[in-house]
Design goal:
By secondary structure, this protein is an alpha+beta fold. 46% of the residues lie in helices and 22% in strands. Among the domains are: 41 residues, no CATH class; 67 residues, Orthogonal Bundle (Arc Repressor Mutant, subunit A); 172 residues, 3-Layer(aba) Sandwich (Rossmann fold), CATH 3.40.50.300; 112 residues, Elongation Factor Tu (Ef-tu), domain 3; 101 residues, 3-Layer(aba) Sandwich (Rossmann fold), CATH 3.40.50.10050; 97 residues, Elongation Factor Tu (Ef-tu), domain 3. Bound molecules: guanosine-5'-triphosphate (GTP). The site of guanosine-5'-triphosphate has 15 residues, from helix 28. It is found in: Cytoplasm.
Length: 956
């Protein structure tokens, strides 16, 4: 057969040549070298035991055939039955060992420790589960044999493989299938077997937490000191992985055991222990973990001021204060934060904090200020605006306006309040009002003159009497007589007063007859008249106005001289007049009284001198005296705006002497005496007491009755005049506003108050002032005329712009607009009116103001018609067959339906017909058919009254 050399066999066996040679030597077949040829028996002896630990089946195949045949044998191995038969067949002798080998195989199923020795085989077992059922009977077969045999030798064999080697090859081969047969039985039992088989490791893992618990118990003891407690915690954390590394990577470990190990690194974050606590049933480990965190929380708390709040910080600080220096620093931070909080949230945070409370109190103290008593008196000048009063009282203007509204006064912040209103308001707010207005009258009041400085002055006479009793005639008669007798050729000027001379003595007559003017001047505070001449017509006697004149004179305390006029008339009865006047206490001297009666005739110039003598006599009785050697003081008797001279006024000097060039103030105006002239048109350089003169030089037209006072300088005169103007404006505005507020509803119903704005430009200041003043006087309750701007010079673009913005009219006197201004005015549509005469301008403005007035409607009667028959017309309604009894009936006019003189309907006609034709109107005495809009209740005998509303332009 084939020869097998040593090295070939060594290769087949996978061993070195030397080892094979050693084995051969042990078998008693020594060889000298590796090329030596071996006998087949020797090869068998060598290969059989040599294949057992590695590839037994291959070794069996080699023994019988070449390697190619081994494969065939391997297939046979897959059928355990045949293999078992074959395994038992070739070796007859070790048949008895086969059951012995099966016995330990059976033990393997019962004893799990044995397969553990060879893991590799355990894998093979798992890979061949199928053969298990068929092998079971095979295993059962040898089982009885095994039962007969003692189990002791079988038990020895598996314990040590070294001991199995010397065993018979048959026995070892029999053991293989035995293990394979039992393997399926082991497979399902593997999990169960593994648990008891590997507990050696798990007890170690479970022991770790048990070992850790004492470690944690140590941490419990360090609760009180947070920072040192952290160090042991860290040490423990490092120790734990060291102890837990071994069990952790092992597979198959129970989860309950694995988690603590896998989560060990987590404690480094400082949060893991908190999460681990719920997984442990022991409360003890929780405390040591939480307490170190308590220290961390304190640090976090220092970084987060908001949730902790000031009080929390204070508590932390108190707790941590005695611990360490670091805690002192940590305590400072919350303290700073606490201060900030006090600043930004003083209200809620300040509760219970002294500092916060103090700050709030300080703020309140600054707000509440109680002014001194002297400061609670508000001094005003006649009037004060709402805003100014609120400012003085230190309150909001809105509060004051609210208070005014409660009083029923709707006011704005610029609303002027008069003294009384301001006093009421201020009282409500605990203030007092004191009127410290510049009392000009007191300032200008005449100082009492020394008796030696007083000189006799002419009497000032006013003539009163009933209508047509001859007042004017008497004045003219006296004057004419005097003129004729005195200065022939003089041109009489009507300046409102004149003086006559008799026997070297002057008498001044006021040329404003009637008690109305007398009383009006009195009402203005002017006491001008010294003597009253009461004119009573001898033929008419005492009349109503005579009585009034007597009463007015008596009220003024002015002596009366009775002039019985018209004695030239045949029917004159002076005695009756004397008798009638007795009832008023005016008793003639001849009748025992003290009243002077002079019978005169103005027409016939009878007893005029006697009258003047009586006047002088009365003046003597009165002892009329004045000091001529001082600044003039008088009364405006009459004033007007002269075309060429501007404002002129007749001044009756009452004391002192007025000279040309004197500065003066008269009412709200001031000026300088440019020129004076008497009633005869003569220029006079000076005017003494009781001398009437016409003065030129006023800045505006004064009112009759204004007090005229000469001033030392223009500045003083201007200041006083301006003050009076301001006072007048405020009082007028207050009066106007009050009125408008009282009638607020009506004003709203009617519309806004209409304003006419003007801009006045002139060549000289005098004319500008005169025009402006005249325009202002045109202001009425319905229309307010405002002079926005008044100045000297040409009309400029600025003026036009102002007019455009204010919707104003520009009035120019002897001036022309600039070229650009004219173009701009045309472009902007500004009305520029140029005048040379002031009166024309005033008239134009008057007309313009009348145009602004709301037209009034007046009903105009048109006619009447009587219903004679009523017809009912389908789709039309009732139609009245009527007869026009008066006037005419107009189709588009308005009609009233009267029934028994009671208006039952007022509206319009829907149709007016004559027979079948529509007509516009039907005249009187004609019949017609009429129907009303939306009204059908027509009855025979009803009256149609036709009328229309006529528009009437408003008049100032
Ligand atoms: N016969 C006669 N007629 C006189 C006399 N005085 C006035 N008259 C006439 O009486 C009328 C009224 O005269 P006036 O001077 O206008 O009287 P008055 O009081 O001024 O009238 P009023 O201005 O309207 O208040 C005139 O027609 C005069 O001519 C007089 O002495 N004798």
């Amino acid at each position: 057969m084939s020869k097998t050399r040593v090295y070939e066999l060594a290769q087949q066996m996978g061993i070195d040549n030397k080892e094979l040679m050693a084995r051969l030597a042990a078998l008693g077949e020594p060889v000298t070298n590796h090329m030596a040829v071996l006998e087949d028996s020797v090869v068998k002896a060598l290969t059989a035991p040599a294949q057992q630990p590695t590839h037994k089946e291959v070794s069996q195949e080699e023994v019988r055939v070449k390697p190619t045949l081994i494969r065939r044998r391997a297939k046979v191995v897959e059928t355990p039955e045949s293999e078992a038969v074959e395994a038992a067949a070739p070796v007859e002798e070790p048949v008895q060992e086969a059951p012995a080998a099966a016995a330990p195989a059976k033990d393997v199923a019962e004893e799990p420790k044995k397969p553990v020795r060879d893991p590799g085989r355990a894998i093979i077992i798992e890979a061949a589960p199928k053969p298990a059922p068929p092998q079971a009977p095979a295993a059962a077969k040898p089982a009885p044999a095994a039962e007969t045999k003692p189990a002791a030798p079988a038990a020895k064999a598996p314990e040590t493989p070294v001991e199995a080697k010397p065993a018979a090859p048959a026995a070892s081969e029999a053991a293989k299938p035995a293990e394979k047969v039992e393997a399926p039985a082991q497979a399902p039992q593997a999990p169960a077997a593994a648990q008891p088989a590997q507990p050696a490791a798990p007890p170690k893992v479970e022991a770790q937490p048990e070992q850790a618990s004492p470690t944690r118990a140590k941490i419990l003891g360090r609760v009180e000191i947070p920072i040192p407690a952290q160090r042991p915690a860290e040490r423990r954390e490092y120790q734990r992985p060291a102890n837990g590394e071994r069990p952790a990577p092992r597979p198959g470990m129970p989860r309950g055991v694995e988690r603590p190990g896998t989560e060990r690194p987590a404690p480094r974050t400082g949060e893991r222990p908190a999460g681990a606590h719920p997984r442990t049933d022991r409360p003890a480990p929780l405390a040591p973990v939480e307490l170190p965190l308590g220290g961390d929380d304190r640090r976090k708390g220092a970084r987060k001021p908001a949730p902790a709040g000031g009080t929390d910080y204070a508590k932390n600080g108190k707790k941590g204060a005695p611990a360490t220096k670091g805690k002192k620093e940590a305590f400072k931070k919350p303290d700073l934060m606490d201060k900030r909080e006090r600043v930004f949230e003083p209200g809620p945070r300040s509760k219970g904090k002294k500092r916060g409370v103090e700050k709030v109190q300080i703020g309140k103290k600054t707000e509440i200020t109680v002014p001194k008593a002297i400061k609670r008196i508000i001094k005003i000048s006649e009037s004060i605006t709402v805003g100014e009063l609120a400012k003085r009282m230190g309150i909001k203007a809105t509060d004051l306006i609210r208070a005014l509204m409660k009083m029923g006064v709707m006011a704005t912040i610029n609303h002027p309040l008069d003294f009384d209103t301001a006093t009421i308001l201020a009282t409500d707010f605990g203030y007092e009002i004191e009127n410290v207005a510049l009392d000009v009258e007191e300032m200008l009041e005449a100082e009492p003159d020394a008796p030696e400085s007083l000189q006799k002055r002419p009497p000032v006479v006013t003539i009163m009497g009933h209508v047509d009793h001859g007042k004017t005639s008497l004045l003219d008669a006296i004057r004419e007589t005097n003129v004729i007798a005195g200065e022939a050729g003089g041109i009489t000027q009507h300046i409102g007063a004149y003086d006559v001379e008799l026997n070297g003595r002057k008498i001044t007559f006021l040329d404003t007859p009637g008690h109305e003017a007398f009383t009006a001047m009195r009402a203005r505070g002017a006491k001008v008249t010294d003597i009253v001449i009461l004119v009573v017509a001898a033929d008419d006697g005492v009349m109503p106005q005579t009585r009034e004149a007597v009463n007015h004179s008596k009220a003024a305390g002015v002596p009366i001289i009775i002039a019985i006029n018209k004695i030239d008339k045949p029917e004159a009865n002076p005695t009756r007049v004397k008798q009638e006047l007795m009832e008023f206490g005016l008793v003639a001297e001849e009748w025992g009284g003290d009243t002077i009666f002079v019978e005169v005739s103005a027409k016939k110039r009878i007893n005029l001198e006697a009258l003047l003598e009586m006047v002088l006599l009365q003046a003597d009785v009165l002892e009329l005296k004045a000091n001529p050697d001082k600044a003039a003081r008088g009364t405006i008797v009459e004033a007007k705006l002269d075309k060429g001279r501007g404002p002129v006024a007749t001044v009756l000097v009452q004391e002192g002497t007025m000279k040309v060039g004197d500065y003066f103030v008269a009412g709200v105006h001031y000026g300088r005496v440019r020129a004076m002239q008497n009633d005869r048109g003569e220029k006079v350089p000076a005017a003494g007491p009781a001398m009437p003169v016409e003065v030129i030089g006023f800045t505006g037209v004064p009112d009759a009755g204004d007090i005229f006072v000469a001033m030392g300088d223009e500045k003083q005169a201007k200041e006083i005049a301006n003050h009076r103007q301001m006072k007048l404006r405020e009082s007028e505005l207050a009066k106007h506003s009050k009125l408008s507020l009282e009638q607020l509803y009506e004003k709203i119903q009617k519309g806004e108050v209409k304003d006419l704005n003007t801009i006045v430009k002139g060549d000289v200041q005098g004319s500008v002032e005169a025009v402006a003043e005249s325009l202002r006087k045109l202001t009425t309750a319905a229309i307010r005329l405002n002079v926005l701007h008044a100045s000297v010079g040409a009309i400029t673009e600025t003026d036009v712009n102002l007019a455009s913005a204010s919707n104003a009219i520009i009035l120019g006197f002897n001036v022309r607009p600039e070229v650009k201004a004219a173009a701009l005015a045309e472009k902007e549509g500004v009305d520029v009116r140029l005048y040379n005469i002031i009166y024309d301008a005033v008239d134009d403005i008057k007309k313009a103001m009348e145009g602004l007035l709301e037209p009034t409607f007046k009903e105009k009667y048109l006619g009447r018609a009587e219903i004679r028959e009523v017809f009912s017309v389908p789709k039309v309604g009732n139609v009245a067959g009527s007869y026009v009894t008066d006037g005419k009936i107009v189709r588009n006019a308005q009609v009233r339906l009267l029934r028994d003189n009671v208006v039952v309907y007022e509206g319009k006609l829907s149709s007016l017909r004559r027979f079948k034709d529509d007509v516009k109107e039907v005249a009187s005495n004609y019949e017609c058919g009429m129907s009303l809009e939306n009204y059908n209740d027509l009855k025979i005998g009803d009256i149609f009254e036709c009328f229309e509303m006529e528009k009437v332009a408003g008049k100032l």
